[in-house]
């Protein structure tokens, strides 16, 4: 049986979009290949976990610089895996610049095929972007296949434009089992609706970071009357700033970090799914797809080169407005709030789009076919 080494920044049960996708890839290939994973640990010590029957080597992280984790033991652990495990294929989840440098060194001595999982371009950290230009060129040249999550991202990425023949689109997926609705969730939905009688319930989901655009949703709220109630979930480095921006706006509730059942309940109880991301750091929008699966009409900004506007289609599954135009965003919220027929139409079309394009069954098939094609 052929062997695959997966390299992800972190790994399950660490919660994050990239980490979830990395796990989905591993699960899709289970029983087809012998697999191992190497990732950072969110503690300072090394650790070996067994996740879903797969060995996961977690390297202790002693600090972070510009969101990049650093580890003293990573070089040794990666070298040992490349030598002793001797994979036929290496799957590298990009970006991860520190590890990319170590991997390129190891690949000079290896015949392993390289699959680059290109989650996003580095767009915010200007100096990192300049520093790793040469590294990116080397990675792309060495790669046998490059996975992007949408055709939009390939067209909008200056890096991927030069290697389009190596690129394949495999959209992220929703695991239907994770979307199950229990009786307890249904009770919570009724309670949320009872608390918001005669209100339009809006939900926005995600980490409180700049590209998620929550600041613009807060600004849009100022153009709305008190018939709206906007729930913003999650936490992050901008939480305090967002609370300050929303001070005095009784329409906005910050839920903090909530568990999966509470999140499902909130989305199911809602009338509108607000997804105000503003940059192509939002490469796909898995939370957006989950909201659409629950038949919620989506309101998004136009983001050139992002998969967001590939997942939700303007005037088909929701409304797309000019990037950062908070007045138009509020207008879209108001239009949908006042038109139940349109909400239902977009909601049903959204679920249909997810079921036809973004479920784990299609993802597993696409992943398996791609890996077979490179061996």
UniProtKB/TrEMBL annotation:
Gene3D superfamilies referenced in this protein's UniProt entry, alphabetically: Glycogen Phosphorylase B
Species annotation: Blautia massiliensis
PANTHER family: SULFOQUINOVOSYL TRANSFERASE SQD2
Name of the featured protein: Glycosyltransferase
Glycosyl transferase family domain residues: 193-353
Pfam family name, one: Glycos_transf_1
InterPro entries the UniProt entry points to: Glyco_trans_1, Glyco_trans_4-like_N, Glycosyltransferase_grp1
Domain Glycosyltransferase subfamily 4-like N-terminal: 16-178
């Amino acid at each position: 049986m052929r062997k695959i080494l997966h390299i992800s920044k972190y790994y399950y049960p660490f919660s994050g979009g990239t980490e979830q996708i990395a796990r989905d890839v591993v699960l899709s290939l289970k029983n087809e290949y012998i697999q191992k994973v190497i990732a950072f640990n969110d503690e300072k010590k090394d650790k070996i976990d067994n996740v879903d029957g797969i060995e996961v080597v977690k390297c202790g992280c002693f600090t972070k610089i510009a969101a990049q984790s650093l580890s003293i033991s990573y070089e040794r652990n990666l070298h040992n895996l490349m030598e002793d495990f001797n994979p036929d294929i290496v799957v590298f989840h990009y970006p991860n610049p520190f590890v990319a440098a170590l991997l390129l060194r190891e690949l000079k001595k290896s015949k392993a095929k390289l699959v680059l999982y290109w989650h996003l371009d580095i767009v915010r950290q200007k100096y990192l972007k300049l520093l790793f230009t040469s590294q990116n060129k080397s990675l792309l040249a060495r790669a046998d296949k490059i996975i992007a999550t949408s055709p939009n991202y390939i067209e909008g990425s200056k890096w991927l434009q030069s290697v389009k023949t190596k690129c394949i689109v495999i959209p992220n997926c929703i695991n239907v089992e994770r979307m199950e609705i229990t009786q307890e969730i249904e009770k919570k939905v009724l309670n949320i609706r009872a608390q918001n009688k005669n209100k339009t319930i809006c939900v926005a989901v995600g980490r409180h970071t700049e590209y998620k655009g929550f600041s613009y949703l807060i600004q849009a709220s100022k153009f709305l009357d008190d018939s709206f109630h906007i729930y913003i979930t999650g936490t992050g480095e901008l939480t305090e700033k967002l609370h300050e921006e929303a001070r005095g706006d009784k329409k906005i509730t910050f839920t903090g970090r909530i568990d999966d059942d509470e999140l499902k309940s909130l989305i199911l109880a809602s009338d509108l799914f607000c997804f105000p991301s503003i940059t192509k750091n939002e490469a796909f929008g898995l939370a957006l797809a989950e909201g659409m699966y629950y038949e919620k009409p989506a309101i998004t900004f136009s983001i050139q080169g992002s998969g967001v506007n590939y997942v939700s289609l303007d005037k088909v599954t929701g409304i797309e407005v000019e990037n950062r135009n908070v007045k138009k965003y509020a207008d879209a919220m108001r239009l949908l709030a006042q038109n139940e027929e349109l909400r239902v139409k977009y909601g049903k079309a959204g679920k249909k789009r997810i079921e036809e394009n973004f479920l784990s069954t299609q993802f597993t098939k696409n992943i398996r076919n791609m890996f077979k094609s490179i061996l």
